[in-house]
Batch of 2 targets.
Target 1
Amino acid sequence: MIAVVGAGAMGEALIAGWIASGIEPAEIAIVDASAPRVAELEQRHGVRGIDLTDTAEAETIVLAVKPYQIPDVLESLSGHLADGALVVSIAAGVPLAKLEDALPGAAVVRVMPNTPALVGKGMAGIVPGAAATGEQVERVTGLLDAVGSSIVTDEAHLDALTALSGSGPAYLFYVAEAMIEGGVHQGLTRAEATALVTQTFVGSAAMLAESGKSATVLREMVTSPAGTTAAALRALDDHGVRAALLDAVEQCRTRGREMAEE
Ligand SMILES: NC(=O)C1=CN([C@@H]2O[C@H](COP(=O)(O)OP(=O)(O)OC[C@H]3O[C@@H](n4cnc5c(N)ncnc54)[C@H](OP(=O)(O)O)[C@@H]3O)[C@@H](O)[C@H]2O)C=CC1
Ligand SMILES: O=C(O)[C@@H]1CCC=N1
C-alpha cells in the first residue's frame, strides 16, 4: 500500500498520475486534515481515506503536506512505522537531516516532483537518504517514472532543481496567462486565444523534447531577419524578461534554502 499524507494539489497530481499509469486505486490510501477533501478524492479516484496511525501498514508513505506541517506529521509517525517502511518526503526546503533525525533508522527519500505528474508528464529529482536501500530507491524511481521522468541527484542540487522543474510549471502558466491576455487585447476571443497559446506550448515543448535541437536554435528558426519575431523578442529584452527569469530561478532556489532554516 502507498499512503499519501496530505492530499492537496501535489498529492492529488501524484495519485491521479499513478492510477492513470495502472496502479490500482485500492493500493493507494490518503490521509488529510480535511474530511471533505478526503471524501472528494475517494469519490474522484476510488482511493480510501485512512488515519495517520493506519500508515503503519504502508510499505511506502509519501509526505505531501506543506513544509511547516512536516514536523507534526513526523512526530506522529515516529515509532509507528512498519519494518522496512519507506518514507518519501516531497516537501520543499525540508532537508533529509531533519527527516532522518525525526525518524531514527528509517529509510527516507527526498523527492521534488511537479504537477504535470497529473498527466503523466512529470519531472522529479530524487535524493536517497542514508538508510534507503537500492531496492527502495528503485521503488521510488519506478513510482516517479510511472508519472513522467526522474533523476537521482544530490541534496545540494535539490533547491536548484526545485527552481527549474518543481516550481517551473508556474512560470510557464504565468507566461501562458500573459500571452492569452495579449491575444484578448488584440481582439481574439478568450477561447480562441487559449486554444492558440495552448497548442503553441504543446508544439514548442514537443520540438524541445524531440528535435535534438537546443532552445537557442529552435528560437532562431522562428526569428526571420527583420521580421515579426525579432520585433517581439526585442520587446522582451527591453523589458528585461531574460534577466527576470534568471532572477526568478535564483529567488526560488534561495527561498528553498531559507525554508530549510525555518
Ligand atoms: N504544488 C506543487 O506544485 C508542489 C508541491 N510540493 C510540495 O508538496 C507539498 C504539498 O504542497 P501542495 O500540494 O501545494 O499543498 P496543499 O496545501 O495543496 O496540500 C497539503 C494538504 O495537506 C493537508 N494537511 C495539512 N496538515 C495535515 C496533516 N497533519 N495530516 C494530513 N494532511 C494534512 C492540507 O489540508 P489543509 O489545507 O486543511 O491544511 C492539504 O490538503 C509541500 O510540501 C510542497 O513543498 C512539491 C513539488 C511541487
Ligand atoms: O511553491 C512551492 O513551495 C512548491 C514547491 C515546488 C512547487 N511548489
Target 2
Amino acid sequence: MPASRRPLIAGNWKMNGLKASAGELAAIAEGYDAALRARIDLLVCPPATLLAGFSAQVAGAALMLGGQDCHPMASGAHTGDISAEMLKDAGAGAVIVGHSERRADHGEGDAVVMAKAKAAWRAGLLAIVCVGESLQEREAGEAAPVVTRQVRQSIPEGAAAANLVVAYEPIWAIGTGRTPTVADVAQIHGTIRRVLGERFGAEGAGIRILYGGSVKPDNAATLLATADVDGALVGGASLKAADFLAIARAVL
Ligand SMILES: O=C(CO)COP(=O)(O)O
C-alpha cells in the first residue's frame, strides 16, 4: 500500500444522534490513542446538527469530523440544504457524497454527486464519494459495470489522494448483516483501483478505497486485510464507541 494510503476508518451516524451523544464522541476521541493515531485516520460523520458542538468538544484532538451530504452551491435559496462551506465552518474536514441512501431517497444521480464532490473541494473538504450496486444488479452480474460507471461519472476531474476517498458500499450489504465474500470485495476494489488509474494516472494509486456495508468488530479484520481495501465506512457499528474502536483496532 503506498504511504499516502493511510487507513481511514470512518463512521457514518446517518440520522442518529442527539446532543446526549457527546459521551459517545468523547469515548471515541479518548479511544483514538497514540497507537491508533500512529497508524490510521479516524473520522466521525454525525448529523449536521451536532457538528459545531462536537467540533468544539474535540478541538485539538486528532479525530476528524465530517458531514454526510452537501448541496452543490455555496449558499442561496435552497431551503433545508447545507453547503460544503457551512460544514467546513462547523468544523468538518470531510463530507460523504453520493451515499446510496441519498441516491435512493433523494433521487441523486451521478451528475449531482459529481457536483457535490466539486463543492466539497471548493470548500476545502475531503470528498468521500460512495458507489455500489443493488442486489438486482449484483445478481444480474452487473456489479463491476455499475461501479465502473459510478466511478467514471460521479468523480470529478482533478481527483487526488489528498482530496478524494472512494467508498464501495454494496447496497444489499448496508444494514443487513450480509457482506460480500472477500473475493468479491477484492474484485470490485480492484476494478475501482483500475478505473482510478485510467482516469487519474499515478495519483489514482494513492486514492483510498473504503469498504462499507455491515462492517462489525468480528468481520473487520478480514475485510480490512483484503487487497485494495484501505479502510471502512461504518454505519450502525459506529454509533457505539466500543464497536467503532474495535473496528479501528482491527487495522493494527
Ligand atoms: O451505509 C453504511 C455506511 O455509510 C453502512 O452501514 P452499516 O454499517 O450499518 O451496514
